[in-house]
Design brief:
The complex is a heterodimer.
Chain A: E1 2-13, E2 16-28, E3 33-38, H1 44-51, E4 59-64, E5 67-68, H2 74-81, E6 84-88, H3 99-109, H4 115-128, H5 144-156, E7 162-166, H6 174-191, E8 194-199, H7 202-208, E9 211-216, E10 219-225, H8 226-231, H9 236-244, E11 263-270, H10 278-286, E12 289-300, E13 303-313, H11 317-326, E14 330-335
Parallel strand pairs in A: 3-8, 3-9, 6-7, 7-8
Antiparallel strand pairs in A: 1-2, 1-4, 4-5, 9-10, 11-13, 11-14, 12-13
Chain B: H1 3-10, H2 17-52, H3 61-76, H4 79-85, H5 87-94, H6 99-124, H7 128-136, H8 141-176, H9 183-193, H10 197-225
Helix pairs in contact in B: 2-3, 2-6, 2-8, 2-9, 3-6, 5-6, 6-8, 7-8, 8-9, 8-10, 9-10
Classes of the chains: A alpha/beta, B mainly alpha.
Amino acid sequence: MIRFVDVHKSYTVNGKVIPALEIFSLDIADGDVFGIIGHSGAGKSTLIRLINLLERPSGGRIMIGDTDMTQLSDAELRAARQRIGMIFQHFNLLSSQTVAENVALPLRIAGEKDQAAIRARVDELLHRVGLSDHADKYPSQLSGGQKQRVGIARALANRPSILLCDEATSALDPQTTASVLDLLAQINRELKLTIVLITHEMDVVRRVCDRVAVLDAGRIVERGAVADVFLHPTHATTSRFVNEALPEEEAGEHVPYQNVPGRIMRLSFRGEATWSPTLGRVMRETGVDFNILAGRIDRIKDMPYGQLTLAMQGTGVDAAMNALREAGIDVEVLIR
Amino acid sequence: MIAAPLLQTLFPNIDDWAELGRACIDTLLMLGGSLLLTVLLGLPLGIVLFLTGRGQLHAMPALYGALSLVVNVLRSIPFIILMIVLMPLTYVLVGTRLGIRGAIPPLVIGAAPFFARLVETALREVERGVIEASQAMGATTWQIVRHVLLPEARGSLWAGVTVTAIALVGYTAMGGAIGAGGLGDLAYRYGYLSYKSDYMVVTVLLLIVLVQLLQMLGDRIVAHYSRR
């Protein structure tokens, strides 16, 4: 468990105090993939760096397990950091060293002297990230996705219990992003480590995260299970992030449904409900006419979900809405 | 020797080629010795300058300011004056003010601050992200210097060694004028004071060749280490 207890952070620049993160508390459960989403400048890079104390909090405690990170001596902190892997937007690999030497670096820093042991561990790590054939190449000879895989192998070298991902896919194209996220999800499953990632893309959160916190101007404005936050955002910033992840016609608000006859509503369903023919049954039973204006069926991590924007007409619309809600579908009226 | 008569015709005033050869060796010895000591002294000084600089791993404004001042003062004194000013110290350090031994302390004290600045600049070019990554791994400052800063900067560091070596060639020639020996001494005594311009020409040619060789060697080493 990673716990932030009454943590806040501000910087002093030329004698002026500039707040970066307002006081907050946050729990991240072991084994979770926890996303922190926010625009640039929202404070997310500061927040993730508080975990391994690359940034020191101005107040509050940062607990990893039973250890208060802020109370550690320099040597203890270095030892604790060896158990926390970190990957970066720009990979931050040593350009002067081969892939294998880059992956070996954390082992050497941790004091491993046995060359054979280092080589064996490096081989194992490169195999895990699918780069066994690239051990003797230099980072400049690799693609962005491959560089991030080296970064991941390096971060896993000392068998950490936590992996911090600092905008790890922001410099990658969509396809490469997907494969790197798949690798992170696989690592989370197989190694049971906790992943904390920061991003400005809701799609990254939707694909791999279990839980999410939304950061806006130094404040956590919303937090919860990804499905809840994604399907029912309550804060304006969250809504904007969710809408960015959707095609334009589904994003709602600015699409003119005013001229569409009938009551406009958005249905959200998740899990097994996605696959059952509830909508058809309810419409048949209540005799309501409906028209689909927009919709999608997709996945949030491993859970299927669907969201449909409908125009309903007829006397049974209220009854239909009740029946849908009883079947566990969330109904939100957009225009009456 | 086919070359000997030719040289004799070209440079009729040079009567002791062996002396010229010894001067060459003296220059190379002064250069090698002072370069080695300059790097040994300037590299740690440059690393300390980098680490204590603003916003760096061990930012210490007072120490940085003091070191920076010393470096600037030593760099602003023309070498020929530095050499004279340092004569008492030179005598204490090596027991003579003359010859190769007498030349080395002022050469090192003149060149080490210069090289230290080059080291500082080279280290500043190392990506911050890479340093941050090694901090995140739990590296000590020494481990960061050894495993990250020096390997990542080695191309620029070798370029700095090359520039420093060439500056030292100039300094050794200047030192010749006040008793250090070597090619500068020959050029000054025979070429200038005795109007034997042949000596001047040959010395200058030899110095050009030396600088060219140093630059070529340096470029090769830099190219070898620049894999980006």
